[in-house]
Design goal:
It is elongated, with a radius of gyration of 14 Å. With 72 residues, it is an all-alpha fold.
Length: 72
């Protein structure tokens, strides 16, 4: 079906797997970014690195919120 259709479907599945409505939209966009990174590099590593940086950033933010009394 081609790169565009494959990227859209895999990104949609990536978003849906995350399960929380606001997260679904963001994960869909991240899926597109990761698919683009793969297509440009022909390697899984850029997508893995993007995913790790994204998750690490969210963990640091969560820690800062909790440490300052803002519980999610």
């Amino acid at each position: 079906w081609g790169v565009l259709t494959g990227s859209l479907i895999s990104s949609l599945l990536f978003g849906l797997i995350h399960g929380i409505p606001p997260v679904i939209a963001f994960a869909f966009i991240m899926g597109l970014v990761i698919a683009y990174a793969y297509e440009k590099s022909q390697s899984l590593w850029p997508g893995i690195i993007i995913h790790v940086i994204n998750n690490s950033f969210k963990i640091v933010l969560l820690y800062l919120f909790v440490a300052n009394g803002f519980a999610p």
